[in-house]
Write a structure and sequence with these properties.
- Helix content is 34%, strand content 15%.
- The protein is of the alpha/beta class and 242 residues long.
- Helix 3 crosses helix 8.
- The N and C termini lie far apart (85 Å).
- Belongs to the WrbA family.
- It holds the Pfam family FMN_red.
- This is Flavodoxin-like domain-containing protein.
Length: 242
């Protein structure tokens, strides 16, 4: 036996100290909240709505801007577009038509939207030629059912109080039927078009304005209010999509 401290006779009977838990085990527990957060689904992208107009003197554009404001107030990604012009410049100049800094829509642009609202100037109780010409260029979308199931709406402008508001809207609905789109009317729920104290161009079909060809009348505050409400109501329908 070597020299040194002699071991105790009872050392074999002493309890052994319990091992401390490994540090990684503690960190694993702290990682659980982070893992749970990583599994939280991302917020859905906002629904997209295109507001498509043709406007000679700015009335339909003004109504469209209010509709866009109503859509955006409900969290919708809304954008105002204009259709291509079909009249030559010399004719437009004689009509004192205005020009607007709006993007010109192409048929394929419609596909990316969840809903589309069309601003129609009336011509002989129907939609104006520029809107009709644009729709005539959507044949490939019809053939591929690219717009099927998308929501659609209407707003109008007429030169007189009874200048074809309802006939223009009614004659446009078959376009939606052929394209498989779902028409969303403005309706009467908001109560804004029940009043008789002020002339306005709205109807249960959609918002609207009265725009005499002499330029003597602008879009009224009531017509703007109704247009914003149509945007909000249309957004409420589009936002139901999952």
């Amino acid at each position: 036996m070597t020299s040194g401290t002699r071991p105790s006779l009872f050392s074999c009977c002493l309890p052994v100290a319990a091992a401390k838990p490994d540090a990684p085990a503690a960190s694993a527990a702290s990682d659980k909240p982070a893992a749970a957060a990583a599994q939280t689904p991302a917020a859905p992208s906002p629904k997209k709505v295109h507001v498509v107009v043709h406007s000679l003197w700015g009335h339909i554009k003004a109504v469209g801007e209010e509709i866009v404001a109503g859509l955006k107030a409900e969290g919708v990604d809304a954008k105002l577009w204009q259709v291509p012009e079909t009249l030559p410049k010399e004719v437009l100049d004689k009509m004192h038509a205005q020009t607007f800094d709006l993007p010109v829509i192409k048929p394929d642009d419609l596909v990316e939207a969840d809903g589309i609202l069309f601003g129609l100037a009336t011509r002989y109780g129907g939609a104006n030629a520029q809107i009709r010409a644009f729709l005539d260029s959507t044949g490939s979308l019809f053939a591929s059912s690219a717009l099927d199931g998308k929501f659609a709406g209407i707003f109008t402008s007429t030169s007189t109080q009874h200048g074809g508001v309802e006939t223009t809207a009614l004659s446009f609905v078959p376009v939606f039927a052929h394209l498989g789109m779902i028409f969303v009317p403005f309706g009467f729920k908001s109560g804004q078009i029940f009043g008789h104290g002020e002339v306005h161009g709205a109807s249960p079909w959609g918002a609207g304005t009265i725009a005499p060809s002499d330029g003597s009348r602008n879009v009224s505050d009531l017509e703007k209010e109704i247009a914003r409400e149509q945007g909000k109501r249309f957004a409420g329908v589009v936002n139901r999509l999952k």
